[in-house]
Amino acid sequence: MPGLLRAVAAERPGHPAVVDGETTLTFAELADHVMAAARGFIGLGVEPGDRVAIWAPNTWEWVLALLGLQSAGAVLVPLNTRYKGVEAAHILRASQAEVLCTVQGFLGNDFVTMLSDADLPDLRTTVVLRGEIPDGTLSFDGLIAAGGGVAPAEVDRRVAALTPETLSDLLFTSGTTGLPKGVMCTHGQTLRAFADWARTVGLGPDDRYLVVNPFFHAFGYKAGIVAAFSVGATVVPEAIFDTERVMEAVESHKITMLPGPPALYQTMLNHPALDVTKLSSLRLAVTGAAVVPVALVEAMRDTLGFDTVITGYGLTEACGIATMCRHDDDPQTIASFSGRAVPGVEVEVHDADGVVQPAMTPGEVVVRGYNVMQGYADDPGQTAEAIDEHGWLHTGDIGIMDERGYLRITDRLKDMFIVGGFNAYPAEIESLLAAHPDLAQVAVVGMPDDRLGEVGVAFVVAAHGATPDPDSIMTWARDQMANFKVPRQIVVVDSLPLNASGKVLKTDLRARLAP
Predict the structure, then answer these.
(1) What range defines the domain where residue 258 resides?
(2) Alpha-carbon span 152 to 512, nearest angstrom
């Protein structure tokens, strides 16, 4: 990654790399700032292989911190800005992060205070990239000052020591259980995957890329920053998705590339202030992470003016990418399928015995290739469960594949559902809800939602002597977990349906929600 930045800075030194509000950094300027940040991290004692976390929204400082920590040889650990303190603390502990880069005041949150009571034995330094600087933390300028005694040659030495096999990031996902696990991916995997992604999409050096997808997610970080820089395009970060702000940014920055979940485009199309004449610069869209209606694909082309609309499928354990449609696929294919395998990657549909299923026959989606993770950090048991002896990554997703090799996801073994592009894991939500004193049992399932794709519904059984109130439970849940995890409906039941082995029959619960 640092080598990529240096190469682009040499080729296109005066081209804008990042445009964030009043701040514009050319590639040459970004490279200079990254050198200063890398010296700062080294001055703070960061060694190659150490984990540095970023808990912040999409800003130019995020990009700088990312490339600075990686230039120091460290491994990125991104944190979801919607996390509450207990969720963030778990990942900081599990990753053994020694430095945290964060902000103060985003959406009214005080991230530093959220962690004030957390037991974080490895965390030595908190750097506040933007906002007020609480006692005991370091300002962004303080980070730069910390590198005053570090020679640029030390950064050069560390960058030269990076190889394609060096870990670049540790993205946490709940995987098959409710406890988030760190997915280990390397610089080589990330660069290859998203250079291919950029080529498939048709991203070019003159594109201006509005990154609404959060940088803490593979879609924003890898399909955003990495893909853009792999072709020398300009990144325009957007901290929150607000329809009017996005449309204003498209007009003022002449945005050409605008990926996002289907909800993003649906909201734009339905917005009373939509003026398509102000969106004439748009040409590229990449969507997925939810059902995509054919009518939406057509409206994105006909109304919003996109020349190219592409859908895809990926998961964190596969470096964020597995299949993609192609620019010349018809709207029916783009809406109905998640594309075919990307170059150098195999995707198949297997039955329970590992036998490849005939066309249009459901089975588990498995992935094999350079993009498959190195494993879950410090968890060889879960790694062995996820990746079999033949190198196939078992995604836990159920899909069908047509004669052309195009994949359609139909269900999820893991019961995961996707809320506005964010993966929501029932086991994790159930664990958090189980702490409510009025609840004895909890089962969470996803149900379709016109705007967000899917939302959660929690079926709850009262604790002895308690009378659960759905509204108060939802209010409580908003204080305990990220908003996308909060169930949109609480259903109080006398008991949960169980099979002979005592497992909750979630198919029965979903059937209760059917129209």
Answers:
(1) 190-412
(2) 63
Q: Is the pLDDT of residue 66 over 80?
A: yes
Helix (H), strand (E), coil (C) string for 60-74: HHHHHHHHHHHHCCC
Beta-strand relationship, 363-369 and 345-350: antiparallel
Q: What is the pLDDT of residues 372-429, one digit of tens each?
A: 999 999 999 999 999 999 999 999 888 899 999 999 987 677 677 889 888 787 877 8
Query: Is residue 111 domain-shared with residue 10, that is, in the same domain?
Result: yes
The runs of H, that is alpha helices, within 270-420 are: 294-302, 331-336, 380-386
Alpha-helical segments (H) within 148-224 = 152-161, 187-201, 218-220
Do 408 and 442 fall into the same domain? no
Residues in CB range of 418: below 8 A, 6 or more apart: 261, 289, 290, 424, 446, 453, 454
Domain-embedded: residue 241: yes
Res. 502: pLDDT tops 80? no
Q: Is residue 383 part of a domain?
A: yes
CB under 8 Å to 395, separation ≥6 — which residues? Answer: 315, 317, 318, 322, 364, 365, 366, 367
* Together in a domain, 462 and 430: yes
CATH number at residue 482: 3.30.300.30
CA-wise closest residue to 45 among 66, 73, 67: 73
Residues 428, 489, single domain; the answer is: yes
19-28, 95-104, 292-301, 443-452, range with the lowest pLDDT? 292-301
pLDDT at 48 over 60: yes
Taking the mean position of all CA atoms in its chain, how far away is CA 310?
A: 18
Q: Which two tokens stand for residue 175?
A: 């995987």
> Which pLDDT score is estimated for 176?
44
Give the dihedral of Cα atoms 8, 13, 16, 21; nearest 10 deg.
Answer: 110
pLDDT at residue 501, as a whole number:
46
Evaluated on CA atoms 304, 306, 312, 317, the torsion sign reads: negative
CB distance 308 to 282 below 8 Å: no
3-state per-residue secondary structure call for 365-401: EEEEECCCCCEECCCHHHHHHHECCCCCEEEEEEEEE
pLDDT average, residue stretch 333-350: 94
What integer is the mean pLDDT of 295-316? 92
Residues 490 and 385 in one domain: no
pLDDT in tens, 244-284: 999 999 999 999 999 987 878 888 898 888 999 999 999 99
Is residue 176 situated within a structural domain?
no
In the chain, the largest separation of any two C-alpha atoms, in whole Å, equals 70
Number of domains forming the structure of the chain: 3
Same domain, 476 and 329: no
Residue 31 has pLDDT above 80, yes or no: yes
User: How, if at all, do strands 308-313 and 284-288 pair?
Assistant: parallel
Same domain, 476 and 374: no
Question: What is the per-residue pLDDT for 214?
Answer: 92
**Could you give the count of Cα atoms lying within 13 Å of 380 in the half-sphere of its Cβ?**
0
